[in-house]
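Reminder to self: tokens first, then the designed residues, so the page reads top to bottom the way the pipeline ran.
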């Protein structure tokens, strides 16, 4: 990735980036080349994309055959440029696919949990009253209500938690989100098994058949998403650990 080094407002040197992370980058220069410890770097993530301007600080200079490897960290970086770099790194290490899958799965589970709660409340009200007279509900219905609330909590928690894995608590948040998704998945699998036991697949009502097919799709999509994420878990953990080491190193230097 080509880049330009600016020093005191003037073009100082053109380089080629060899590494790019969420906290810094590196490039190679000749051993005889002069490079200040503080400078501005400008580059594009893609051809014809926005020019990113970053204030850089040299962390280390290591000798390599034919020159020096310069490792730098970001000093001043706008939130917009930071997001662009984070997304680029995420796609580069092939993490955007699994993360997008669980984003969609969490969204679909949240919708499913929302309408289930509404249906339960309507059924609870009209099933628990008869001509204005209340009577005690069954313990089975109360237990389902508790389980439904837990399902909704897990689904909404997986949905509202951010998918930004590059912040300080990114790894903990990601693992918690995956746990919530698995817990919600167990609920919908259990419900679909109960639908099969009740033999409601042979219903003559179009609405019920559409609902059942929607549930089957939700089960398979969520299960597929979880399987893909678990298969990529080693790579995701490696990336998060590397980011954590970068952040720890920067905090030690500041």
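Designed residues (254 positions):
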């Amino acid at each position: 990735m080509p880049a330009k080094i600016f020093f005191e407002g003037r073009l100082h040197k053109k380089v080629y980036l060899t590494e790019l992370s969420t906290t810094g980058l590196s490039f190679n220069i000749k051993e005889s080349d002069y490079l200040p410890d503080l400078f501005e770097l400008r580059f594009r993530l893609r051809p014809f994309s926005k020019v990113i301007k970053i204030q850089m600080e040299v962390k280390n200079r290591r000798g390599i055959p034919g020159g020096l490897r310069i490792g730098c960290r970001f000093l001043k970086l706008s939130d917009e440029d930071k997001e662009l770099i984070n997304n680029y790194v995420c796609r580069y290490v092939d993490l955007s696919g699994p993360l997008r899958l669980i984003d969609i799965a969490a969204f679909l589970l949240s919708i499913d949990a929302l309408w289930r709660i509404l249906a339960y409340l309507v059924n609870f009200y009209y099933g628990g009253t008869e001509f204005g007279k209340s009577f005690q509900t069954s313990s089975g219905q109360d237990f389902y209500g508790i389980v439904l609330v837990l399902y909704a909590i897990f689904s909404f928690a997986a949905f509202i938690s951010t998918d930004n894995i590059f912040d300080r608590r990114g790894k903990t948040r990601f693992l918690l989100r995956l746990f919530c998704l698995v817990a919600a998945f167990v609920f919908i699998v259990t419900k679909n098994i109960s639908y099969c036991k009740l033999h409601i697949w042979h219903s003559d009502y179009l609405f019920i058949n559409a609902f059942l097919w929607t549930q089957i799709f939700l089960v398979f999509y969520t299960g597929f998403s979880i399987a893909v994420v678990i298969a990529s878990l080693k790579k995701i953990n490696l990336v998060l650990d590397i980011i954590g080491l970068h952040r720890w190193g920067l905090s030690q230097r500041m």
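The longest helix spans residues 96-128.
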